[in-house]
């Protein structure tokens, strides 16, 4: 897969080479362009600018606009008081903090979970029904249009087919053993509980009439993501935690060892949370089911327990054997 980083490297090299060519070379200003996340604040105060700003507000303060406690009952699409931005950090602009930049042109794309091609709105609704434990936003709802406009804006100037570095939650080495909630518990007590609470319920803001969200979002329990969410899968959760938590950490400077991150994520996903009905219909092509999906059915004979906590290498090996005998498909999940 070509990463944008490689392209930047090439572009900068070309630029330097050209500048040695003298007067015929383009000016440094023209060539040494580096893509950065576009600045919402710089948008004009026109209809488009307002739509994008509204989309950003919906990401950073989801609970205040479409949360389960907003006064307008018809707007209660989300089932919890999280914000999209609690996971899509820095309003979707943080590398390996489940970034939302540069992906607009990747959609519509095949989605293994639903077994069909989905649009960006369809993907947003995946998070609405799982991470936000709520209902899908209608495609023509103004809130949906604003979120899509914001995500599209975050892809300004990114040509189709180019993947920026920093999407997803990162990828640290896996353990050869199963991750263990019991080993993660003391890590949680030491490194997470001060913010997220020893009961995982987080800390709400003190002025609920003004702002319904959390200062520290809950990690489990009824106001958190449900058991069908990406964050309920160990590989996603462990990498997210490794590269982003404790809050303020980034991928250049992880605070936990990989082992601690695997075990503390195992502890987090072992805790009770809302159940999403119908999970058995996810990944209609079982050969495409991510190895860390914590619910069956599965194409191979491994237990739900091993899918939930690993080790994943044996599952992966069994799956590639099965895949070798099955017709190829494209669009594996990131
Ligand atoms: C509890 C954490 C969490 C919350 C809250 C959340 N998401 Fe997500 N989101 C994820 C994870 C994890 C993934 C990647 C899932 C995977 O690996 O399959 C994701 C993926 C996405 C993607 C696809 C990204 C890509 O790389 O293609 C979009 C778009 C998205 N979310 C939008 C939203 C929006 C909009 C909201 C709020 C309405 C939201 N998410 C709330 C965790 C969350
Ligand atoms: C200094 C406070 C702090 C510490 C310590 C901390 N977090 Fe967080 N965490 C946050 C905040 C704040 C957010 C929301 C980020 C945002 O909205 O920008 C968050 C978000 C999260 C999320 C995604 C949102 C959700 O509710 O699911 C997960 C998962 C998470 N933290 C796990 C952990 C784990 C595991 C640890 C311990 C290794 C940890 N955090 C340590 C403050 C903290």
Write a compact overview of the structure shown.
It is built from 14 helices and four strands. It is mainly alpha-helical and 334 residues long. A hairpin with a 4-residue loop joins strand 1 and strand 2 (116-118).
Descriptive notes:
This protein has three domains: 1-34; 40-153, Cytochrome Bc1 Complex, Chain D, domain 2; 181-269, Cytochrome c-like domain (Cytochrome Bc1 Complex, Chain D, domain 2, Orthogonal Bundle). It has 334 residues and is mainly α. The chain contains 14 helices and four strands. 37% of the residues lie in helices and 3% in strands. A two-stranded antiparallel ribbon has the order 1-2. The structure holds heme C (HEC) (2 copies). One heme C binds at residues 82, 85-87, 89, 191-192, 194-196, 216-219, 224-225, 231, 240-241, 245-247, 256, 264, 268. One heme C is lined by residues 82, 85-87, 89, 191-192, 194-196, 216-219, 224-225, 231, 240-241, 245-247, 256, 264, 268.
């Amino acid at each position: 897969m070509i990463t944008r980083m490689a392209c930047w490297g090439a572009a900068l090299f070309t630029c330097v080479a050209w500048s040695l060519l003298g007067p015929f070379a383009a000016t440094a200003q023209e060539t040494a362009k580096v893509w950065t996340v576009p600045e919402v604040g710089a948008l004009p105060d026109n209809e488009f600018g307002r739509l994008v700003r509204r989309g950003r507000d919906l990401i950073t303060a989801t609970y205040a606009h479409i949360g389960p406690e907003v006064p307008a009952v018809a707007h209660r699409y989300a089932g919890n008081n999280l914000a999209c931005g609690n996971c899509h950090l820095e309003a979707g602009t943080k590398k390996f903090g489940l970034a939302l930049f540069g992906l607009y042109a990747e959609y519509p794309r095949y989605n293994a979970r639903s077994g069909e091609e989905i649009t960006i709105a369809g993907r947003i609704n995946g998070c609405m029904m799982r991470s936000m434990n709520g209902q899908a936003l209608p495609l023509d709802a103004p809130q949906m249009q604003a979120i899509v406009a914001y995500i599209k804006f975050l892809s300004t100037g990114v040509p189709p087919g180019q993947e920026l570095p920093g999407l997803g939650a990162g990828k640290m080495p896996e353990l050869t053993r199963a991750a263990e909630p019991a080993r993660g518990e003391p890590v949680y007590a030491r490194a997470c509980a001060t913010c997220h609470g020893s009961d995982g319920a987080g800390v709400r803001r003190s002025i609920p009439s003004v702002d319904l969200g959390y200062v520290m979002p809950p990690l489990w329990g009824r106001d958190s993501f449900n058991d069908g969410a990406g964050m309920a899968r160990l590989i996603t959760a462990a990498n997210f935690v490794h590269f982003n938590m404790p809050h303020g950490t980034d991928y250049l400077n992880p605070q936990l060892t990989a082992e601690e991150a695997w075990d503390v994520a195992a502890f987090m996903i072992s805790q009770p949370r809302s159940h999403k009905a119908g999970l058995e219909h996810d990944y209609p092509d079982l050969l495409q089911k991510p190895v860390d999906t914590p619910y069956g059915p599965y194409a191979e004979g491994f237990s739900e327990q091993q899918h939930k906590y690993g080790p994943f290498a044996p599952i992966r090996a069994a799956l590639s054997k099965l895949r070798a005998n099955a017709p190829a498909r494209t669009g594996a999940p990131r």
